[in-house]
Write a structure and sequence with these properties.
Elements lengths: L5 E2 L11 E6 L3 E7 L5 E8 L5 H19 L4 E6 L2 E2 L6 E2 L11 H9 L4 E4 H12 L7 E7 L3 E7 L2 E2 L39 H4 L1 H11 L10 H9 L3 H25 L3 E5 L7 H10 L11 E4 L6 H7 L4
Parallel strand pairs: 2-5, 5-8, 9-12, 12-13
Antiparallel strand pairs: 1-8, 2-3, 3-4, 6-7, 9-10, 10-11
Helix pairs in contact: 1-2, 3-9, 5-6, 5-7, 6-7, 7-8
Amino acid sequence: MTLNQNTAPGGPSGHADLRLGIDLGGTKTEVAVLDPDGRFLLRERLPTPRSDYPATIATIVRLVTEAERSVGATCTVGVGIPGAISPATGLVKNANSVWLNGRPLLQDLAAALGRPVRIQNDANCLAMSEATDGAGASAHGVLALILGTGVGAGICIGRSLLVGRNAIAGEWGHNPLPGPVQAQVDAPVRLCWCGRSNCIERWLSGPALAEDFACEDGDARPGRIDARTVFSRADAGDAAAEAAVDRWLDRLARSLAGIINLLDPDVVVVGGGLSNADVIYRELPRRWAPHVFSDRIDTVVVPAAHGDSSGVRGAAWLWP
């Protein structure tokens, strides 16, 4: 299981000691420069130009250029994206930032920056960061989850990324929600942006939790409340919010049990916007136990040590 990285032709150029990472998100694009010990020398953000591919390239180039001017060095460049580079075509696939799909992002960035670039899925970058010097640094098998506007995962074995033959390792969010789809709990059918129905992402993402709560609460409307508010209301004793969080935790436990049965990781590291919900770490081990095929479950679940900076740090760590 080797580190399978997407790299534009050529070798690394620039300052051998400084690594620059880009986290290309749906709403913001972040740049960070790390020193050899993983300390931030710089961290900046710009809004992501949604649905505008040329402007996305220009934003990344601007962030890299200004960051390197600030630190006074040319750095290696790694980029995390909400999708993957297809091994078959070299083009972006599976991005929920759909304007990236079918585009030669790796080649275009290398040409615009005049140097090699490495690109990986954002969940893989989370896994790389947390396995290198984060919550999974002492573990052999690390499963790093993104629970936020989307649902994904990255896998590190012995601090090496498992990317897979088709560059889809960790894409558990686009498996069907496991377990019986009961009319009163997991229905009606939810269509996913990927074209499938009842994907895990459509039940476990932040918007999915908010949607589930809105369906049960007569005063809440879809789009007017977010998952953070649902968790806060549940903590305050709101019965409808408590029920929505309970259903969400049950679905999360069922979904993760299948991954544990397959990979048997030492640690599950949770990142993304929902990772701050303490109930996840209290409840998951108890709830996944009936679904895991083992007499004892020593897998632990912990929040990402580097929080919302883990993705951009992992992008920087794509260069050794």
